[in-house]
Inverse folding.
């Protein structure tokens, strides 16, 4: 379904490797399964020919990897960034998390990535191979006689259905055409929850958060979570905890995590993508984003390098905490 | 483990009346860390303090908890006691069991229970206390004043009077500022030049004061006591120490059609010029944009006529680096641009002028030698209309004007109107106003004189439109009291333009990490109690850079700022508050969240090399708090996502220990 | 048989310069409020970390109130403005998770407002008492 092809990406990267602009390429490599692509470093065009993958499952946001990878590499690192990834890229630059000079960004257009859970709902388990064929994803499973053909638009990841921007806010070279910020209905689900009664909301979240196994995948994939030591891992922080041993700790972890990234979260959706329990964690972040937009004016983290997060800013006329619920539509 | 002593005060019956003090000291005996617990009638008394000292000695106490009145009352007392007993003063915690317990709760059981819990919280906290020592930093005994108007002049003179060297940086070729452009001053009507120029001379002659005119501050580093400042002295192509100010060069300069800034463009000056006769320093300056010699190497007349040989066409900008203990901002104001106020025809008619232009027009040293004439045709005006609040108090027109009151316009307009009527009794003078604001000594009397003695016609209402027609200005206005529309044929219209901070203030504030309000006025450390200090330690505010002010107010604020500077410079060392933020370098990301919320600019970043467990080294950007600048609010501690920022005296684990003790 | 009335536990974070002094003034004027309110002194309301609030609830607090200087009067110029944004967003999030919104509150109390401090605490304690025990953010292991 992607308009850009694997070959185009390899050509672009090979050229930059060949002329010495970059020394290494951060791209997607084949994982254990076809849908299971994994971030990989490539040093040569040959390595890319052999191991580079680009398909509808290349959702991973590479910007976070730059923090650790640029520290040890010699020369420039080429990174492929989709529009949504570039926001995280800018936000990390705002926070001085890596040296811009050490990175060469190739912006790539994105038509939306597929959610493997949705694919499996249609194809069933036991996927042995997966391939793209125009707008369709062709899935072969161990149990079905014939390959299943799925329209890629029907299995879009949640964050891609509600894509907020096709615009690259940072790049050195852009493949394809410059896109635009697009209107999305990404806050609809938050609004739906807000209109529930507090009891219903509590029940909803208790049900969702009780699934948490504290694997920390959400934190580890989050491009805003780049702390040297996370407070939850730091015995000296006083809030260290490693397992969700009861409902409080489930809530504690997710509230604090969302609060720590509030104003810095670009809504890239990695947290929800990587959650093995399919907890809609992005809703917590989106709640903060929606509130910040409503209370303090529209703000998109990462849209500009160096912008000031609304939670580290103020005006003298800000809303009082007692006023935030005034006039809110809600079932009594 | 701490060895804590608990001292429960009766405060006579103030505490003991509602709280069973015996039960409290008994209950707290078994808390972790506590090795001694007692109660006494008056802990703050000599005997009470002796009891604490003895207990420290006998029980080898390392921490003290006093359950007594509010820490706002006696924390300092008990800290001194601790020091006398050989402990660090910050090893004392107070449980407030009087104001926040015995005095507000009537029930003895409930009061006693709460007192025990508050005591437990204080013990939990003191168990985590560490000795704190305030940092010390030296003070460079030299002050910098930025801006050489009346505010900067007065501040510099007062500081120099106390014996400290002062440097004044002024971006214009001369000091004097706006006051030098004024004619008379309200409410006494003495001439501005007569009271200002002697002060300018005082500055020039004071051996403690250096004037850097035609100069700008380009960089500020460091902090209170030690600011490293870079000053760019722009090339004026005239050797300042050689020029005698005779003016021969000016007379002979062939480029004589340059709009004269000092007279607001109402007449012309030469390419080489001295802004006005009493300029300090009285030296010529060559305008590089106008001088033929500098532009294309043709001319050189000034050099030929200069007997002193002061002209130097090859002069370069000079960079001066100096260290200062304190910085005073006195950057002043400007009238706002009238371009957007088309309804008043400012850009269409030369006879619509601003009040500052009116000052020049009536000034004996001005373009008309003090004759009030219409700029368009040089004729004597008969009907004058003054319009108040042009761009001031302009809530609905934020893109044009300012929301605030410019404060000085009511008074100077009364002055202009009165002086006009005094000198030219044949004139008719109208003043259109929204309100007349005259709070100030002898201000209202002054305004009433304008109306009652001089017959100035004050009309409450705004001017809606001014249309030039023939040699008249058709003024349409409303009279709100008579409730009718007025149509006047005016010869001259004077607009009381709002004032705004000088445009150099914003970049300067960034350099100084001093905060500003949305109107670009510098903010005070406290609007009531610290009005001449900026929240950034060591940076002080003088004059209109802080808000609209008249001359008397500016001068008193200038003196106040000077006294604050002197108070700082007399110290050899600055002792800080040890309850400041500290960054844990091992967990800090260098993300800058803390820096953004710090109101004092106390946080900076450095690239630091860390040795990793695998023996490699890694360079990371980490935050570093300057304890001399940090005031200990703690805003950074919450902004920090990684918990690397903490606050001495109110550490995360201490507050959490208190929470735990209270909620247990 | 003695019937014990339910008493909520309320933690009040008070800034040193205004609200803590306001609480002292309430004391000076002998203005009563429930003994269930326990005050923790912080230099500025902006020192209050959301973790402190959650920690209080975890350990059994039924309500948490943060008091600071009135906007514009902060001893540190801007601290309470940050508090205002942080707490508005945090409280909105707690509400989003279904936590009763009456359990959290921010109030600006100046050093001259002893009466306001006492009245605020009385009112807040009453509201929290009406809600009953905090069940949604509790940690059963921390219960007695």
């Amino acid at each position: 379904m992607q308009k850009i092809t694997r070959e185009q990406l390899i050509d672009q990267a090979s050229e930059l490797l060949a002329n010495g602009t970059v020394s290494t390429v951060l791209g997607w490599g084949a994982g254990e399964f076809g849908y299971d692509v994994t971030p990989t470093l490539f040093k040569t065009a040959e390595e890319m020919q052999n191991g580079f993958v680009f398909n509808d499952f290349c959702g991973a946001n590479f910007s976070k990897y730059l923090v650790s990878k640029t520290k040890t590499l010699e020369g420039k690192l080429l990174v492929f960034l989709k529009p949504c990834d570039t926001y995280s890229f800018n936000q990390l630059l705002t926070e001085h998390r890596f040296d811009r000079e050490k990175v060469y960004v190739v912006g790539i257009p994105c038509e939306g990535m597929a959610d493997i859970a949705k694919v499996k709902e249609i194809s069933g388990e036991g996927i042995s191979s997966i391939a793209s064929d125009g707008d369709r994803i062709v899935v072969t499973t161990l149990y079905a006689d014939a390959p299943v053909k799925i329209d890629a638009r029907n299995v879009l990841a949640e964050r891609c259905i509600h894509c907020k921007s096709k615009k690259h806010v940072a790049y050195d070279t852009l493949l394809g055409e410059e896109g635009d910020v697009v209107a999305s209905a990404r806050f609809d689900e938050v609004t739906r929850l807000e209109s529930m009664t507090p009891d219903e909301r509590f029940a909803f979240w208790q049900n969702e958060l009780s699934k948490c196994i504290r694997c920390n995948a959400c934190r580890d994939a989050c491009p805003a979570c780049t702390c040297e030591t996370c407070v939850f891992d730091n015995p000296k922080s006083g809030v260290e905890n490693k397992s969700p041993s009861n409902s409080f700790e489930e809530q504690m972890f997710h509230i604090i995590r969302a609060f720590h990234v509030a104003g810095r979260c670009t809504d890239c959706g990695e947290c929800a993508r990587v959650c093995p329990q399919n907890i809609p964690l992005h809703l917590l972040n989106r709640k903060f984003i929606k509130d910040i937009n409503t209370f303090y004016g529209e703000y998109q983290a990462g849209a500009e390098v160096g912008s000031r997060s609304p939670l580290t800013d103020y005006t003298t006329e800000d809303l009082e905490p007692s006023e935030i619920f005034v006039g809110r539509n809600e079932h009594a | 483990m701490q060895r804590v002593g608990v001292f429960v005060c009766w405060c006579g019956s103030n505490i003991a009346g509602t709280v069973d003090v015996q039960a409290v000291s008994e209950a707290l005996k078994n808390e972790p860390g506590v090795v001694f617990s007692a109660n006494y009638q008056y802990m703050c008394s000599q005997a009470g303090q002796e009891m604490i000292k003895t207990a420290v000695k006998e029980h080898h106490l390392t921490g003290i908890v006093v359950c007594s009145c509010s820490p706002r009352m006696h924390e300092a007392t008990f800290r001194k006691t601790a020091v006398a007993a050989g402990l660090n003063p910050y090893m004392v915690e107070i449980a407030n069991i009087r104001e926040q317990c015995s005095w507000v709760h009537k029930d003895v059981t409930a009061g006693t229970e709460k007192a025990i819990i508050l005591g437990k919280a204080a013990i939990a906290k003191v168990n985590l206390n560490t000795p704190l020592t305030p940092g010390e930093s030296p003070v460079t005994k030299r002050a910098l004043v930025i801006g050489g108007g009346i505010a900067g002049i007065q501040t510099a003179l007062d500081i120099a009077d106390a014996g400290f060297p002062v440097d004044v940086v002024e971006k214009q070729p001369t000091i004097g500022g706006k006051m030098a452009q004024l004619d008379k001053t309200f409410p006494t009507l003495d001439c501005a030049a007569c009271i200002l120029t002697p002060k300018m001379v005082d500055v020039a002659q004071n051996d403690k004061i250096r004037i850097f005119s035609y100069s700008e501050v380009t960089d500020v580093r460091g902090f209170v006591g030690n600011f490293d400042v870079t000053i760019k002295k722009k090339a004026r192509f005239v050797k300042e120490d050689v020029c005698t100010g005779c003016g021969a060069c000016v007379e002979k300069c062939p480029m004589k059609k340059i709009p004269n800034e000092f007279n607001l463009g109402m007449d012309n000056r030469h390419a080489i010029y001295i802004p006005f006769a009493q300029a300090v320093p009285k030296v010529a300056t060559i305008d590089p944009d106008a001088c033929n010699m500098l532009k294309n190497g043709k001319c050189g007349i000034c050099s030929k006529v200069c007997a002193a040989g002061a002209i130097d066409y090859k002069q370069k900008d000079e960079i001066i680096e100096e260290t200062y203990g304190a910085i005073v901002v006195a950057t002043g104001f400007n009238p706002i641009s009238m371009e957007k106020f088309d309804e008043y025809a400012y850009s269409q008619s030369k006879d619509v002028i601003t009040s500052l232009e009116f000052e020049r027009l009536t000034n004996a040293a001005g373009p008309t030698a003090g004759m009030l004439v219409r700029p368009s045709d040089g004729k004597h005006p008969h009907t004058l209309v003054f319009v108040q609040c042009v761009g001031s108090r302009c809530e609905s027109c934020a893109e044009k004007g300012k929301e605030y009151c410019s404060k000085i316009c009511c008074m100077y307009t009364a002055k202009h109107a009165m002086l006009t009527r005094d000198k030219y009794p044949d004139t008719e003078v109208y003043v259109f106003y929204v309100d007349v604001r005259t709070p100030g000594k002898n201000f209202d009397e002054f305004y009433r004189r304008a109306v009652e003695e001089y017959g100035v016609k004050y009309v409450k209402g705004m001017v809606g439109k001014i249309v030039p027609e023939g040699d008249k200005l058709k003024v349409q206005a409303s009279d709100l009291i008579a409730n009718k529309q007025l149509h006047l044929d005016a010869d001259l219209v004077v607009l009381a333009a709002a004032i705004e901070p000088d445009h150099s203030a914003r970049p300067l504030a960034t350099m100084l990490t001093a905060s500003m309000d949305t109107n670009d006025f510098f903010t005070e450390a406290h609007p009531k109690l610290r009005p001449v200090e900026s929240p950034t330690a060591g940076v002080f505010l003088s004059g209109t850079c802080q808000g609209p002010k008249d001359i008397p107010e500016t001068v008193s604020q200038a003196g106040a700022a000077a006294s604050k500077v002197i108070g700082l410079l007399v110290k050899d060392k600055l002792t800080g508050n040890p309850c400041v933020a500290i960054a844990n370098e091992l967990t800090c990301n260098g993300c800058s969240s803390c820096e953004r919320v710090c109101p004092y600019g106390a946080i900076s970043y450095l690239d630091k090399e860390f040795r990793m467990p695998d023996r490699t080294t890694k360079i990371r950007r980490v935050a570093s708090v300057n304890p001399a600048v940090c005031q200990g609010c703690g805003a950074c501690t919450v902004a920090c996502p990684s918990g690397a920022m903490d606050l001495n005296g109110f550490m995360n684990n201490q507050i959490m220990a208190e929470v735990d003790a209270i909620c247990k | 048989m003695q019937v014990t009335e339910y008493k909520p536990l309320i933690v009040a974070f008070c800034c040193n310069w205004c609200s803590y002094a306001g609480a002292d003034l309430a004391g000076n004027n002998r203005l009563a409020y429930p003994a269930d309110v326990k005050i923790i002194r912080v230099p500025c309301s902006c020192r209050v970390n959301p973790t402190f609030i959650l920690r209080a609830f975890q350990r059994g607090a039924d309500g948490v109130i943060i008091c600071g200087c009135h906007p514009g009067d902060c001893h540190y110029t801007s601290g309470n403005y940050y508090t205002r944004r942080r707490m508005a967003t945090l409280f909105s999030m707690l509400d989003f998770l279904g936590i009763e919104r009456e359990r959290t509150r921010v109030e600006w109390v100046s050093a001259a407002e002893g009466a306001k401090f006492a009245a605020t605490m009385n009112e807040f304690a009453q509201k929290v008492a009406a809600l009953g025990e905090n069940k949604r953010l509790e940690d059963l292991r921390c219960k007695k």
